[in-house]
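ingest -> validate -> predict -> emit
validate: passed (alphabet ok, no gaps, 372 aa)
predict: started
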Amino acid sequence: MKFVHAADLHVDSPLRGLEHYAGAPVERVRLATRSALANLVRVCIDEEAQFLIVSGDLFDGDWNDFNTALFAAAQMRELRKHGIRVYVIRGNHDSRDEMSYRVPWPDNLHLLDCKNPETVVLEDLGVAVHGMSFPKRELTENLVPRYPKPYKDLVNVGLLHTNATGSLDHDSYAPCSVGELTAKGYDYWGLGHIHKREILSEGPFIVYPGNTQGRHVRETGAKGCMVATIQDGTVASVAFRSTDVLRWRREAITLAPEDGVDELVDAARVRLHQVAEDSDGRLAAVRLEFKGRCRAHRTLGDETRRLETIAQLRALPGEVADDLWVEKIKLETDHPLDRDRLRQGKDVVGDLLRSIDEIRSDPEALVALSGH
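emit:
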């Protein structure tokens, strides 16, 4: 028997300022979180999951367009057709005071209470699902002590939207520790709030699935959900399944001292080919970051040549692959080292370089230095 664990879908999360990016595939990016939800539903169906748990932030906040709610409800109805139940808690972004929740949910979806932890017993599956929604966004209370004891002879699954790792990248909402979660005695803790996928424990399983779709360049790598398998009355294993349709990449390219602008562009072309091969048909949003002391630095100091180079780099996806977008270009190069000038200096560096030259030109000195 299987169930699927997802969190932090942030459906229709606003991607502000996207239209200001040159050549941005605006509509594809804006629809990415919806597509990720549709892919999550497909995972549940393909895996023949008995139920889906969503550990908070299904939505990013109250919507301006009610079509967001209609779309999400339609996806849940698709799960209903396959007999898949859904258990959802609200997180900080879609808490009671953030959301009106006028969603026409089908009857296979159960939104867990926001006043106290609620338990739903799935007698036919031998599972107890425990969870509590956020009543407000700024929830700093540790909720774990309020959760009930595990139900005997059932597989106990807990849903919690929490910062259990002390991550500085996320607000410390409903903070708790791995030790507290372990001590509760549940078989599986399905966590949300932290957008990085991480298994904090395997005995019991304490899991952050990460978000289903990266929303900006700080959320790189594969995004998706976890598929948990229950065997012999316990959660035996978990496996990751990707749901993202857009994958963010930060590609750092270090240039050599002799590299000019042509070499810089060639290096970017090679890297973009590699990214395209790794993307499995997804749209790849790539930030190119150039570093290193190099000959190109002098050329890039001229504003006209710098803009020409940036235009060349932005045009590269057109010759590499359809599903590539250069999101941003960072040129952080520096002047190359002038070894001849340094060698002539009357300082420690000059003395050292001249000594190295002398040793290189004297075979006997090299032998003596090597100790042979």
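The chain has a mean pLDDT of 90.
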